[in-house]
Write a structure and sequence with these properties.
Oligomer: single chain
Shape: globular
Structural class: alpha/beta
Strand order of the largest sheet: 3-2-1-4-7
Radius of gyration: 20 Å
Strand content: 15-25%
CATH architecture of the largest domain: 2-Layer Sandwich
Number of domains: 2
Low-confidence stretches: none
Helix content: 25-40%
Largest sheet: 5 strands, mixed
Mean pLDDT: 94
Number of helices: 10
CATH class of the largest domain: Alpha Beta
């Protein structure tokens, strides 16, 4: 019997990443194509189809061996119905993406939010492999995440499970408004954008910091400065980690995971971020909820999305 394979699609605003996985979550091939969002909904969907077919055509496998196609999409959706309601950076509003792709590809298709899909990838064959209950945070421009229980994504009643970035954790007197409209969201302090913003604010206040010499401050600059002994940068990282660990303590008494995984660009800071997050988690979490809980860095990097998407059809 020919080997079954699964195609994963990680849809972004500028590029479409593709991957082929086997039933064990091994990534066998990767590819990439253009999204072309400016050309509208139909073009984006046609490009997804073309990318899916291309990666198989260029592989050692045949299209007959494809047992399913999964797509991770950045936006709000009803994953069960296969409808994308709104995707901020894509021309997808109330679009029945799953049905359209199934009709064009002639294969079973599953869709999910991109952060949930990345969480599934890490749970399937990354830092959460073999762990029953895994909570993944993705720290980038914003803060996203996903909850995977016994190999399946916890979507929630309206698909909002795992939106950790919009947990209200910052006290009113310190809070600023998030892009979602709420005050004090985790995303305002623990994302790459939040860390950069706090550094810019510190420079404007006149804090003594080497960051003042930079024309533009990134989150990486802040971590580099903290490692170099800059007290202002160290304080910013401690604040970001404090609220991240605090949010995990809240999640721990609701989900009670075995492991937290931190992914996204900010996770590249390694123990400079992870150690203070672990300390904050221990400070805020109930003893029983933190028992045997690990907080680790993601392993799959940019491949988490395509691997997780490929795994959607197995669940």
């Amino acid at each position: 019997m020919a080997k079954r394979i699964f195609v994963g699609i990680d849809l972004g605003g500028t590029s479409i990443k593709t991957g082929i996985c086997d039933e064990e979550g091994n990534l066998l091939k990767v590819g990439e194509g253009a999204t072309e969002t400016e050309l509208g909904t139909e073009r984006v969907l046609d490009n997804i189809v073309a990318c899916a077919r291309k990666i198989v055509d260029e592989s050692e496998f045949s299209w007959d061996q494809v047992a399913g196609v999964g797509a991770g999409i950045p936006g709000f959706m009803d994953a069960e119905a296969g409808i994308v309601h709104f995707a901020p950076n894509l021309p997808l509003t109330n679009v029945p993406v799953r049905k359209i792709l199934e009709d064009k590809l002639g294969k079973r298709v599953a869709i999910a939010n991109d952060a949930n899909v990345a969480a599934l990838g890490e749970s399937w064959s990354g830092a959460g492999k073999g762990v029953p209950i895994v909570v993944t945070y993705t720290l980038g421009t914003g803060v996203g995440g996903g909850i995977v229980v016994n190999g399946s994504i916890l979507q929630g009643g309206t698909g909002m499970a795992g939106e950790f970035g919009h947990m209200t954790v910052v006290p009113d007197l310190e809070a600023i408004q998030c892009n979602c409209g709420k005050m004090g969201c985790l995303e305002t302090v623990s994302s790459a954008t939040g860390i950069s913003r706090m550094a810019v604010d510190a420079v404007k206040r006149g804090d003594n910091t080497m960051l003042a010499d930079l024309p533009q401050i990134t989150a990486k600059d802040v971590f580099d400065a903290a490692r170099a002994g800059d007290e202002t940068a160290h304080r910013i990282i401690q604040r970001a980690a404090h609220y991240l660990g605090k949010s995990m303590a809240m999640v721990a008494i609701v989900v009670n995971p075995n492991r937290f995984i931190i992914g996204g660009g900010v996770s590249k800071a390694g123990d400079t971020l992870l150690n203070p997050v672990r300390e904050a988690f221990r400070q805020f979490a109930l003893p029983r909820a933190q028992e045997n809980v690990e907080i680790v860095a993601a392993k799959l990097g940019n491949n988490a999305g395509v691997i997780g998407a490929a795994g959607l059809c197995l669940r």
